[in-house]
Fold:
Amino acid sequence: MDKEYLSKEKYEELGRELDYLRRQKRKEVAERLESARSLGDLSENAEYHSARDEQAETEARIEQLKDLLKRAEIIKHVNKDSAEVGSTVTLQKKGEKDKVEYTIVGSEESDLSAGKISYQSPLGAAILGKKKKDEFSFETPKGVVEYVVVDIK
Structure:
């Protein structure tokens, strides 16, 4: 059972989602099922089949969230000397002036458009353990890319 690194905020957000699914969504789906059953013949009842599908999806998401939250490890301490999960790292491609900033997160929180990369991604894995001014490279579909670590927060 692998750990899933989560920020405190993401952990709480997933907990709220689980609570909503258990307390409210289950009831809504059960009511839809009951209403669809009352329409008669279930073999050709599209509303019933739709509600059953939604029930299965809801239960699957509940199980997924329970498992995820059970395996979760909250990111607490951020080491500013070397990059780790929870660090925000500023990088510069060798030979270029532009800099990019990424926060290293667990896979559940990764969102490249928000500057959050998974520690399991090729770039995230390459950054882990690096210190300021370290140079590193990693393989991309377009070839090898070389970076310098400018800052770690």
